[in-house]
Amino acid sequence: MKIATWNINGIKARHDVLVEWLKQAEPDIVCLQEIKSVDEAFPGSELEALGYNVATHGQKGFNGVALLSRLPFDEVNRGLAGDDADEQARFIEGVFSVDGQVLRVVSLYLPNGNPTNDPRKFDYKLAWMDRLQAWATDRLTLEEPLVLAGDYNVIPQAEDCWDPAVWEGDALFRSETRSRFEALKNLGFTEALRSANGDSGIYTFWDYQAGAWPKNHGIRIDHLLLSPEAAMHYGGCAVDKYVRDWEKPSDHVPVWIDYQLAS
Q1: What is the pLDDT of residue 198?
Q2: What contacts 158, CB < 8 A, 6 or more positions away?
Q3: Could you tell me which of 214, 230, 244 has the C-alpha nearest to residue 8?
């Protein structure tokens, strides 16, 4: 089974690209970020025609996350716990039945946090990460397969960006951000791509500006974290980099894991 994550940077602008990738890649569960659409305007019926069940947590003009699944949803939970005043649509959890057990998959869109001298931005990012840590700590007590997938807006290590000096001081690369990402992993999560490939120069995002794509000036900020129970089904991870070369692409590309079912 293939579980993927992709920040599509707007469902309206990227609808055709998404449909083409779904037809080619045939993922089973897809975590989308930055759909930039209210729930009512999301083209769910068109995706359902491709065989997907659709759940969204949308927001007008920005943010917004979604789950597409060939499996039926047993449960859908929207919004990250811990701050009732937070109205930003950045978190959706789907619960599925797989091989006679529960599988939980989260699509998350972590705040960017820039500029760092604006507490409404950077402090919000750090507080959101602290809430995610608390939520994950609680979910792990269930001892069920759990996949936290999405655009984390975190560059974990120097090898995850084309030039660390360029990103020094950026919210994505600040020590406060990176240490929280490490603390999340240290709860017992396996970082899917790095567990299979330690090479530098593996990126998931290339800015539209300054020729970043043809120069390969990228960063790796899209991640899949696997709970111990999910890691037992892990069969590899890949980045569909070729999609960035399509017409009207997102600035991110899909990342997916092979989730192996019982034989």
Answers
A1: 83
A2: 164
A3: 244
Do the beta carbons of residue 162 and residue 206 sit within 8 Å?
no
Domain assignment of residue 186, given as a range = 2-259
What's residue 112's pLDDT? Answer: 98
| Whole-angstrom distance, CA of residue 72 vs CA of residue 70 | 7
Q: Which amino acid is at 129?
A: M
Rounded Cα distance, 153 and 29, in Å: 21
Q: Count of domains in the chain?
A: 1
Supply the residues annotated as catalytic. Answer: 109, 151
DSSP states along 118-183: -TTTHHHHHHHHHHHHHHHHHHHTT---EEEEEE-----SGGGBS-HHHHTT-TTT-HHHHHHHHH
Q: Please report which confidence band the pLDDT of residue 263 belongs to, taking 50, 70 and 90 as the band edges.
A: low
- 219: CATH: 3.60.10.10
Quick count: other Cβ atoms within 10 Å of Cβ 261? 10
> What confidence tier does 210 reach under pLDDT thresholds 50, 70, 90?
confident
Three-state secondary structure call for residue 81: coil
- CA pair distance 120, 47, nearest whole angstrom: 36
Give the tens place of pLDDT for each residue, 128-145.
Answer: 999 999 999 999 999 999
Q: From residue 23, how far is each of 2, 8, 9, 63, 175 by CA, in Å?
A: 13, 16, 19, 25, 40
Q: How does residue 199 score in pLDDT terms, banded at 50, 70 and 90?
A: confident
Output 10-14 pairs: Cβ under 8 A, ≥24 positions apart. 10/34, 10/35, 10/36, 10/37, 10/250, 11/35, 11/36, 11/37, 11/42, 11/43, 11/66, 12/36, 12/37, 13/248, 14/248, 14/249, 14/250
